[in-house]
Amino acid sequence: SPPDSPVTLKILQNWVPKISHYFDKEHYTYVGHQIVIQESIEHFGAVVWPGALALSQYLESNQDRFNLKDKKVLEIGAGTGLVSIVACILGAYVTATDLPEVLENLSFNISKNTKDANTHKPEVRKLVWGEGLSEDFPLSRCRYDFILASDVVYHHAALDALLATMAYFCQPGTVLLWANKFRFSTDYEFLEKVCNIFDTTILAEFPESNVKLLKATMRKN
């Protein structure tokens, strides 16, 4: 197949049977590490969604194409932190961000799963899409090699703010990797807006899970 056509993949069962009897813990294995994720039933952002599994799997399998070692990586809408943890294990300098109410669980998962690993110390920060970006993340200091986003598009009203956030951080040289489950017309409308703003390639599709994984870079004028 031509290099630009998406690969068709399946989300592998990378989680291992639960050893703990708690309903709120999921165990995964990526890059040779067992990762234990505590989910929270109160918040959307505190459950592992399929896009996070797809993106984690893709990063693990495509280290030659997207080498995260010593790269600056920002995850927006990090949720439970699985993708940030995988990026950290792959050697990145990770900043994981989400809404204030999700940060406690996010910080817990990230520190628990990276404290013994030989990784750069990850950072967890508040980021409300579209708000206070230039104050909290001034581009003079906060330039990222990769922006990671998974399952950030679902039924919510913040899509314009999300697009603005992606556009803000996607500077020349930055690669946005976004994995999402596509279910609703609003999901496809958002995809169309992304394609209008960025140079976009579909890297992989996971048809059984309705997940697409896209790469976007700043359009060269």
UniProtKB/TrEMBL annotation:
InterPro entries: Methyltransf_16, SAM-dependent_MTases_sf. Keywords: Membrane, Methyltransferase, S-adenosyl-L-methionine, Transferase, Transmembrane, Transmembrane helix. One of its GO terms (molecular function) is methyltransferase activity. Signal peptide: none annotated. The keyword Protein transport does not apply. GO terms for biological process: methylation. The chain crosses the membrane at residues 73-94. PANTHER family: HEPATOCELLULAR CARCINOMA-ASSOCIATED ANTIGEN, PROTEIN-LYSINE METHYLTRANSFERASE METTL21C. This is MT21C methyltransferase. It comes from Nothoprocta pentlandii. The lineage of its organism: Eukaryota, Metazoa, Chordata, Craniata, Vertebrata.
